[in-house]
């Protein structure tokens, strides 16, 4: 999917960042998927070792194939939904605004934007062992309005992004308002 399909850029606007969640945050879903996909294999060998004549009966094998197929399709569907939500959550930072694209399920998407010159505060948060080691965390962008804030969840290098957002905000404020800041 092209970014031009999602946003309409202004003629002076340039994309500075295209941010997604860190790949490591999807690892628990991959691990859960692998564990859930190994369950039918374990059940097959466990049932064969405990009940040696279980698969010999003509009705049990076809029923088990159908039930295993349904189970695997459900696990694949669950994994696909998780991957779509992970991959299609996107934050686009331009030299004029921030666009927050949040995928809410398979057929629902929320897009909000925030002008850079309206930013009042930018903070970064890194909590935990793995986020500290792999340098990812949250970046919270707040405005003077109490209901207008954007959170970049689990992005790489949150401190660098925070610093660049502050610099972009000052530059955009000078461009739109024309006021020099100290």
Q: Main attributes?
A:
26% strand, 4-stranded antiparallel beta sheet, 5 helices, 3-stranded antiparallel beta sheet, PH-domain like, 46% helix, elongated, 182 residues, alpha+beta, 2 domains
Would you kindly provide a written description of the structure presented here, covering whatever features stand out?
- This protein has 182 residues and is α+β, with helices and mostly antiparallel strands.
- It folds into 2 domains: 11-21 and 89-176, Roll (PH-domain like), CATH 2.30.29.30; 27-85.
- Helices cover 46% and strands 26% of the residues.
- It has helices at 3-6, 27-50, 60-88, 129-134, 158-177; strands spanning 15-19, 90-94, 97-103, 109-115, 119-125, 136-143, 149-156.
- The strands form 2 sheets. Strands 1-2-3-4 form a 4-stranded antiparallel β-sheet. The protein has a 3-stranded antiparallel β-sheet with strand order 5-6-7.
- β6 and β7 (149-156) form a beta hairpin.
- α2 (27-50) packs antiparallel against α3 (60-88).
- The model has no long low-confidence stretch (mean pLDDT 87).
């Amino acid at each position: 999917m092209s970014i031009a399909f999602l946003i309409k850029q202004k003629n002076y606007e340039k994309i500075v960042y295209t941010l997604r969640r860190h790949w490591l945050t999807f690892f628990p879903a991959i691990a859960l998927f692998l564990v859930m996909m190994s369950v039918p294999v374990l059940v097959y060998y466990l049932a064969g070792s405990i009940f040696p004549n279980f698969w010999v009966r003509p009705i049990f094998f076809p029923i088990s194939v159908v039930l295993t197929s349904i189970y695997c399709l459900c696990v694949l569907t669950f994994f696909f939904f998780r991957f779509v939500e992970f991959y299609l959550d996107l934050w686009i930072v331009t030299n004029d605004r921030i666009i927050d694209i949040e995928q809410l399920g398979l057929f629902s998407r929320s897009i909000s934007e925030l002008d850079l010159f309206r930013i009042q505060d930018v903070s970064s948060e890194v909590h935990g062992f793995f986020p500290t080691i792999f340098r990812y965390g949250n970046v919270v962008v707040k405005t003077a309005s109490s209901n207008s804030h954007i959170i970049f969840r689990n992005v790489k290098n949150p401190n660098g992004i925070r610093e660049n957002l502050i610099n972009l905000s000052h530059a955009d404020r000078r461009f739109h308002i024309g006021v020099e800041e100290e």
